[in-house]
């Protein structure tokens, strides 16, 4: 009897398990097709031989990675030296994306905080206002940005008419222009998660802190920030990661000198001049880098949680 | 980080060792308006040092608003608030030497229990180790030492409540504000915490301002009670004052159970007022200033001040018929119907019922009371 009942019980859980798998199947298929398959394809392509008019020859080769990391001179016969060109592009991209993330945080945090502390009925209006520009195509927004920032553009005209400056400030084709462009491209990704976190925050905790003699600044640092940290981290990742691989803002606002990874990869797949395995290899390096950064973040986070607990 | 208000209050407290009569909190003509809505209508009250003072009233009457004004979370629309003689209405909350136990506890979820309790001490300028050791003592006081390393979410409601209490008491505030701190606890725990709070107040000598909508809780715990309704003070007095000498109909009805009878005053002589209650029944009770002959007012008689007998007893006696007996544990409530008159509830304690019988419904009985038992109410 007992054994029968037990086996009956496990049969029930098995039924649920298989039903669950069956129900999850569409999600697995979609994830497989749209996430896993492209990554695996990229991985494979990065180890193939390039065909000169784009495309690949199905023959194993490490040439793409070799080209990325090493310099063997013009005829490939010198001893291998590290090739800094692409690593520098990566470094600059990381730096630019980091700066854009910090800029977004500096502007996005107060914005999100402001919205989340408005009356409940007007919050959706503010959120809507923030998202309005993003109904317009990114390319058009970036071009408009270029128009705004150029030497004869409205910004410089305005500054000159106020007498603040005598000659136009050159913003276009600088690092700062790229950072501004990235900041503007991804600002809502910073604002929205922080907004959600602040909205969930229970403000009676700030009152409790003030009641216990904490000034506004200390309350923000010791009570509010720890509570909304997950939102801030999510916002930073959501801005940093796409900024890192972005090519519109660097191309249009940064000019040739401020080339970023996104542009490098884009070029490899464009027209006939490209090098697909090299583009795929650069993508794999980028992907690994993002994964490593995220993993370090997650590790630190769980360490901090453990230390607190 | 020394701050003026705290030191000033500290100074006052020290000077207060001499029998001066500086009140802990003095609220003078305080008005609070939210837009056009007036939440508090000119409240004045004085709370003495070391007092267990309760603000009692139904939900929405403005208790929390008044408490938040004292803590500094709401500004005062009109009027003044003094703490040991110093005006504090313009000080931000973090500069008022007053701590609050919040209704929802508002513990910091990312900090341990010990860090929660140490927070206020650190903010007062204590070193981290000093704050922690003091916080440990506070946790001992509320019997939570073994939970020091846990997060608030790992404690039960009652334990969280005690943490909130320890956290608010740790910096030794001049005045502790408690906003319905026990309302989320079950009955048994609530009763235990009522006693614990009362003891803590005596031990620490800190002035407690306690908010509740539970009249029984207020009567049990308080030195004095302010009964509020719709933003107005109805009565201020000791629990016995409020219970036995309610000033008006609201207070009589809100505090405890009572028989509220519509009466008109027929005659007043020798400090006694004779009233009739309809159906030809008459009652005499003590005269109340402001109620003259011909007034149509209410008379309040507590059910436990009434007793029944088969023959009219000395004092006031009214003839009626038993309608129903209701067993309520320690007592029996009997509803007695006067002929063409109002119903009375008579409460008989089960312990002093002794050899008295429970009379069946339908039995004709006399309802009796002493002369002073009934109380005429203004409005
Ligand atoms: N921020 C506010 N804005 C408008 N009205 C408020 C606000 N806070 C409280 N009130 C109103 O003031 C009255 C008193 O509220 P409260 O002090 O919380 O009552 P209690 O604590 O006695 O239940 C209520 O009618 C409430 O709706
Ligand atoms: Mg309240």
CATH class of the largest domain in chain B: Alpha Beta
**Which regions of chain B are unreliable across 5 or more consecutive residues at pLDDT < 50?**
1-20
Task: Based on the coordinates given, report the CATH architecture of chain A.
Answer: Orthogonal Bundle
CATH topology of chain A: MetI-like fold
Shape of chain A from CA axes? globular
Distance between the termini of chain A: 46 Å
Q: CATH class of chain A, anyone? A: Mainly Alpha
Fourth-tier CATH superfamily name of chain A:
MetI-like
Helix content of chain A: over 70%
CATH architecture annotation name of the largest domain in chain B: 3-Layer(aba) Sandwich
Q: What average pLDDT do the residues of chain B reach?
A: 86
How many separate helices of chain B? 9
Calculate the terminal CA-CA distance of chain B, rounded to whole Å: 53 Å
List low-confidence stretches of chain A.
1-10
Sheet of most strands of chain B: 6 strands, mixed
Instruction: Give the topology string of chain A: H per helix, E per strand.
Output: HEEHEEHHHHHHHHHH
Beta fraction of chain A: under 5%
Q: Order of strands in the sheet with the most strands of chain B?
A: 6-7-8-3-9-10
Largest interface: chains, residues each = A-B, 19 and 29 residues
For the largest sheet of chain A, list the strands in their spatial order.
Answer: 1-2
